[in-house]
Design goal:
homodimer; about 350 residues; 434 Repressor (Amino-terminal Domain); Rossmann fold; 3 domains; six-stranded mixed beta sheet; transcription (chains A, B)
């Protein structure tokens, strides 16, 4: 009896050899009907894969792809350390990619990781990503994806986030209770989940304390603080208002340090002239001048929980009856940058 | 005529199918004699690879593996941004791994990257790596590797480093010229290239200005500052000397901020009681209290030059007649932490 090859199957079914090969490997890239067609035909014809094909057959690579906006950010580097601390012990390699907040790079990274057959993805969305098709298609094909921090509303899967609303509420409340009246909010692009959640917490605190919300005190930075001029322009605009803010609540690492740099260059005294609270995981908050009041996210723990959820999806896909969104508590640490008098 | 398979070749030559397969792909993992044996036999027997094998045949993955100690360090994250800025435009994916300064993880990362068939590696050695066999073996098999920052003496390839000697000399000289007499040096493990180069610059400056070298003023931190207790113990020891230092030159990001934290906790005034200069690329040096004098490495440029050298090795291996070690200039920026009086 002659041996039937993948090429023969492809010819008989009018498919490409690559499609047949992937269908036989049960790849998520091939739709279920095609898989069924190929597998049934292969079985009927008594197809036997060769040893090399067999070595390719186990599609588990024991590796996880991580796509984050940038690694030069304490929040994300701590997140990755959390991911690696769990993954390494469970025998998974962690492959790290930066999107640099670019949609195109995020798509390119995703495609590359999939072509390298990672078992699953952990993603924090790029600030310029509004189209999610590249993730939706993969998930429909069965690739497990867990989102963390910057998560999409429109995709159903496990998500791990900080409790941005409460963190932001507490920061704003603290500024109000410290006697500040005109609290500005410098934040990321409006379509990011973290932006809307933090904005909502800020607004709710103002409302609860009877302070009217003023849109001119909120500035959105499209590049999240990575472009210094954008940062500076937003701060300038606020400082030039008829009633400039007496406090500023900044929504990220870069926006916070960028803001402090502008104040330093302009000789604006913190906290005497303006108080500042940063939503940031910067490691040297207490070494800054003045020491910085921060809302810290449990980045390490977020990474750990996200990778645990992902590995569960990879190893026991059938056991997932519903998806979770876990929201982890932030921590407000009050330092001199936001209180009435300087502490030197 | 019956088709000959890889299995048949393997059986005839008493090799594994995986060896035959890789030999036919001209993989660097197979030694030249075996390749010749396999290829000649395959040709004689009129072996023709199937289309799937063909698609695997082009061993170029257009991806570069990067292994660095840790990403939560401005120097390394800037290095990676330099690497990515060039690689992305030349169509290469950059796959990032952290060794966490562990030899075992560095070996595991290396093996994983090779199994995923990257075209080349960029490596900055883990601080606990003393055995280089995992890299030597790959290079002997033809995998291009370029080292940067923490480079091995015993491997001949392209290397890109900062001019650590001069950077360190200038920092020490600056402290001497500022009137400091007892200058301590807090540094990484002695067997790292950066440690010996920086130590040499420090010693030469002392010598040139007639200050005797005192071994008790030099402390090596095995974990490079990542373990706070180690950091703190080293500083304590120096402060408890009969003649404690009046200045400290720290050799890395972590050692520098760790040192400043200890001084802050102990209420030791900088620069009045002790001056500090850090060999660090920290982004907020001027926002610290006091603003920090730094020796900065051209991390972005180091990454760019290293990846250019690597891609040249990947794409034109025959054009490399000799290996280069490029040494890039550092920049000393003087701020309040090291000068006679505080600038507030």
């Amino acid at each position: 009896m002659e041996t039937i090859t993948i090429k023969d199957i492809a010819k008989a079914l009018n498919l490409s050899t690559s499609t047949v090969s992937r269908a036989l490997r049960n790849s998520y890239e091939i739709n279920p009907e095609t898989k069924k067609l190929v597998m049934e035909y292969a079985e009927r014809m008594n197809y036997r894969p060769n040893p090399i094909a067999l070595s390719l057959k186990d599609s588990k690579s024991k590796s996880i792809g991580v796509i984050i906006p940038e690694i030069a950010n304490h929040f994300f580097s701590q997140l990755i350390n959390g991911i690696e601390s769990i993954a390494y012990n469970l025998g998974y390699h962690v492959v790290i990619f930066q999107s640099h907040d670019s949609y195109e790079r995020e798509v390119a990274n995703t495609n590359y990781l999939v072509s390298r057959r990672v078992d699953g993805l952990l993603v924090s969305l790029a600030s310029l990503t509004t189209n999610l098709v590249h993730f939706q298609e993969l998930m429909e094909k069965g690739l497990p994806i867990v989102f963390l921090d910057r998560v999409p509303n429109d995709i159903e899967t496990h998500k791990v986030v900080a409790d941005n609303f409460t963190g932001s509420y507490e920061a704003t409340e603290h500024l109000i209770l410290s006697g500040r009246k005109r609290i500005a909010h410098l934040t990321s692009p409006i379509y990011l989940s973290i932006t809307t959640e933090r904005l909502a917490g800020y607004k709710k605190a103002l409302e609860d304390y009877g302070i009217p919300f003023d849109e001119s005190y909120v500035k959105y930075c499209l590049y999240g603080g990575k472009i210094e001029a954008e940062n500076e322009a937003a701060i300038e605009e606020m400082l030039n208002l008829p009633e400039p803010p007496d406090a500023i609540f900044t929504a990220s690492d870069r926006l916070t340090t960028g803001c402090m740099s502008v104040f330093q260059r302009k000789g604006i005294r913190v906290p005497e002239e303006i108080a500042i609270v940063g939503f940031t995981n910067i490691s040297v908050a207490e070494l800054l001048n003045p020491p910085l009041t921060t809302v810290m996210q449990p980045a390490m723990e977020m990474g750990q929980q996200a990778v645990e959820l992902l590995i569960r999806l990879i190893e026991h896909p059938q056991k997932t009856d519903r998806f979770e969104t876990r929201s982890l508590k932030t921590a407000l640490t009050i330092r001199a940058s936001s209180v009435g008098k300087t502490v030197v």
